[in-house]
Amino acid sequence: MAAKDHHEDVELQAITESDDEAAAVPQQERVVSKAKQIKWWLKVLTYPAVILTSQTAYLLLARLYYVKGGTSKWLSTTVQLAGFPLLIPYYIYTNRRHSNNQPDQNSAASNLTHGAFYVIVGILAGGNTYLYSTGMDYLPVSTSALITSSELAFNAFFSYFLNSQKLTPLIANSLFLLTVSSVLLVFAGDPTTDPRGITKAKYTLGFVCTLASAAGAGLVFAVSGYAFRRVLKAQSLSIVMNMLLFQGMVASGIGVVGLLASGEWKGLGKEMAEYELGTTSYVMTLVWIGVTWQVMAVGTMALVFEVSPVFSNAVGTVGLPLVPILAVVVFDDRMTGVKAIAMVLAVWGFLSYLCQQYLDGRQVQ
């Protein structure tokens, strides 16, 4: 009888241990899942901080170059784009890390398709950067930043045709507000306050170039989203790094060709010698323009990979109203009533757009 009771106790203990192990497995899975969620949220919080910080620094440095004596638009364009070699170590790391998890995309046709896409996006990026450099030369940085906020509206417009973006009332409201915000800035300009004597014609040219640059940037975002779904047919970190690196090669090549063809390179020695802050500051200003641009690009594409192109574009847009406030302090830009209204409309348009994205996200859940 004692032997029988002992046998039953052993069986009961075995069953209990088995149940404990079974209960432990889901618990471990929950811990791992929670850790992954925390890691994801840390990334989502970190990347916007990186974008907002680097974007603000880049805009102020780009304006500083012109205010203190810089004149070469092609040089400004080139240094923004020529920092792509900084991405090579991380590019190698991501390709090694993800090489075993990627589908076979080494066919000649696939490489040709990818290469064609990188060239197209690189050309667009090079052209957009030159247009933006022109606008930065002729406009106060506060005005330039507010016009650039219309990039979000252009993204929605092009995404409507390329990515079947829904034109909801909130999106339409965002497009309207951002358009009005940009148009108001036409009447906010006061070129006579510029110490370099920018004419009204140059101010208008700067406005048109900056608006065209915003349209081009919105097109690049929409095309990138289309390419991920229809051309590259993948959205991995290594694909994102490929796009950044090869796009940078093509775009910086355009900048170098433009610098040489325009003849602006001939006056760079004199420009450096006459720079108000000195030769060292001239070089460091250009270097940090390139560095901050690349940091902004990496943060933007990382957020595209982790969340979505729309959210990444929205983060970049929401940071632009910070620039006019800082420009008042750093460059003594005038914060006129029209500019203030334009800034409020730009933020309102962004919030309207973001609200629609939140509603879309809830429908997916």
From TrEMBL:
Reading the lineage from the top rank, the first entry is Eukaryota
TM region positions: 40-62, 74-94, 115-132, 138-158, 170-188, 203-228, 240-261, 281-303, 310-331, 337-355
Q: How does it sit in the membrane?
A: Multi-pass membrane protein
What are the alphabetically sorted keywords of the record? Membrane, Transmembrane, Transmembrane helix, Transport
Q: What's a single GO MF annotation on this record? A: purine nucleobase transmembrane transporter activity
In the UniProt record, which is one GO cellular component term?
A: membrane
Predominant location: membrane
Compartment(s) of residence: Membrane
Family, according to the entry, reads as follows: Belongs to the purine permeases (TC 2.A.7.14) family.
The name this protein carries in UniProt is Probable purine permease
Q: What organism is this sequence from?
A: Linum trigynum
What is the organism lineage in this UniProt record?
A: Eukaryota, Viridiplantae, Streptophyta, Embryophyta, Tracheophyta
